[in-house]
Amino acid sequence: RLVLADALWYTQDRFKPKFMIDLATLTGAIVVALGHEYAGLFANNDELADRIISAGKTVGEQCWRMPIGEAYDKMMNSDAADMKNAAGREGGSSSAANFLQRFVNEVPWV
Predict the structure, then answer these.
(1) What is the DSSP letter of 3?
(2) 8 Å CB contact between 85 and 99
(3) pLDDT score of 96
(4) What contacts 4, CB < 8 A, 6 or more positions away?
(5) DSSP per-residue string spanning 47-99
(6) DSSP result, 9-42
(7) Which residue in 37, 38, 44, 57 is deepest, having the highest Cβ count within 10 Å?
(8) Domain segments of the chain: what residues?
(9) How far is the C-alpha of 10 from the C-alpha of 76, rounded, in Å?
(10) Are the beta carbons of 12 and 104 closer than 8 angstroms?
């Protein structure tokens, strides 16, 4: 997770992309939530998320958009450090995605 966060930050800072797509197995919690029928999708941009979901349907790979937001972001707060990189079991996939979103800024990301 830390390496991926660094890669996202570096990519947006160095290459100034129009959008970023990362594919990762951040946690096993997404399989608990969705099984093997859908891939979990997290995004900070509705248009990009819709395009990925549509592309998945076209090739028979179903995606289900999962929530990220302030409630999950608060789980990353820490009294001892700038932030935590894991928040615990509850909301594990969403909190992991929210951790990554902290390193994305305004670039559309999924």
Answers:
(1) H
(2) yes
(3) 87
(4) 22, 24, 26, 100
(5) HHHHHHHHHHHHTT--EEE---SHHHHHTT--SSSS--S---STTHHHHHHHH
(6) HHHHHHH--S-B-------THHHHHHTTT-EEE-
(7) 44
(8) 2-101
(9) 21
(10) yes
Residue positions counted in the chain = 110
Token readout for 94 is 């969403």
DSSP 8-state secondary structure symbol assigned to residue 109: B
Q: Is 78 exposed, middle or buried (0-12, 13-18, 19+ CB in 10 A)?
A: exposed
Query: Hey, what are 45's tokens?
Result: 């941009």
Structure tokens, 35: 């099984």
Give the CA-trace dihedral at 39, 40, 43, 48, to 10 degrees.
20
pLDDT of residue 71: 79
Cα gap 12→105, rounded to integer Å: 9
Q: Which residues pair with 109 in a beta bridge?
A: 20
